[in-house]
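re: ur question from yesterday

yeah so i grabbed the chain u mentioned. its 79 aa long if i counted rite. heres the sequnce exactly as i have it in my notes:
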Amino acid sequence: MSHEAPATDIVANTFLNAAEVAEFLDVSRSTVYNLIASGRLAAHCNGGGKIRPRGIRVPASAVTEYLAGSVIVPSEVAA
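ran it thru and got these structure tokens back, copy pasting raw so excuse formatting
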């Protein structure tokens, strides 16, 4: 009898640090911090609610949501 979590649960419970998010999105860590500070990327801050480089953990699902929300529709692109 196995109690393994479904793959979707594992992804939902996976947290990334700012460097991992930056590498995945191909941006700098400061861009990741700016996305978090602006509210465009959800994150958990360990350390009294302050955004600290070592205390930030971003749910993998938040990265997926950010990417889904940043899709450019061809009709929105200036010709």
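noticed a couple things. Residues 3 and 9 are 12 Å apart (CA to CA). also The two ends are 58 Å apart (CA to CA).
anyway ttyl
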